[in-house]
Amino acid sequence: MARQQLTIGPAARAAGLTRKAMRVYEAKGLLPEAERTTAGYRLYSPDDVELLTFIRRARTLGLHLDDIREVLAIRSGGIPPCATVRDLLDARIAELDSAVAELLALRTTLAETRQRADDCTDEQPVTVCAIIEDS
Description:
Number of domains: 2
Strand order of the largest sheet: 1-2
CATH architecture of the largest domain: Orthogonal Bundle
Organism: Pseudonocardia ammonioxydans
Largest sheet: 2 strands, antiparallel
Keywords: DNA-binding, Transcription, Transcription regulation
CATH topology of the largest domain: Multidrug-efflux Transporter Regulator, Chain: A, Domain 2
Distance between the termini: 71 Å
Radius of gyration: 25 Å
Order of helices and strands: HHEEHHHH
Protein name: DNA-binding transcriptional regulator, MerR family
Number of helices: 6
GO molecular function, one term: DNA binding
Helix content: 55-70%
Domain HTH merR-type: 5-74
């Protein structure tokens, strides 16, 4: 029995993606080139939809396309990619921790600057704004 093939719209809905995202993933080599009907419509198998769902989930976790490509290459070699995924997630967590630390430092600077702004009046002779000039 032949497995049901889906055109791009139904496949996109099933994977939770847009058609544009699917075409990008195909162009980037994450998704094999789709079969085509005689009219030129792309056809996707249930395996393709499963792969697209995996890619969407990985992107939701913040993995980059190169990271996903690496995981898929390991998987296609018949090796479970769990160790690689753990390493990639650890790296992503470290990136987020660094970004959070930078944002917290910026927030502290902004709050301190705002506190000093209470002493600033519009009557002071300045070229732009003493609040920012004194930061």
